[in-house]
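[Q] Does anyone have a clean structure-token version of this?
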Amino acid sequence: MDASITWDHDQTFVAEASSGFRLPIGEGDIGCRPMELLLFSLAGCTAVDVLSILQKKRQKLTGFEIQVKSDRSPEHPNRFTAITLNYIVKGEQIDPAAVERAIELSLTKYCSVHATLTQSVPIRSAYQIR
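[A] Here you go.
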């Protein structure tokens, strides 16, 4: 897996992954901020896992969302000091045990982003079934 960052203008860069996808990154009005990308990466990684596991468990999902909250240190480099993932699962007759197990498997076995970040920042999780 490779990636590159190329300066576009002002404080805006274009990231390009080896897959060919491109994404603007910056500190201005155009593009995602780098720390936002970390949160997106964490949520995206675990979302893919949890959704896949719940579908394999034949849960009747009508919606799925992860809300991410974070705290950052006030001093530079303003690292994350805590992250909370709130999984919102919507559907019919959703089994809470299946949701708990899917989250557990993602966070302890499958999600490489979680495995990387949890070494330096505490990550909590919660879920709601609607």
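[Q] Thanks! Anything notable?
[A] The first helix runs from residue 34 to 56.
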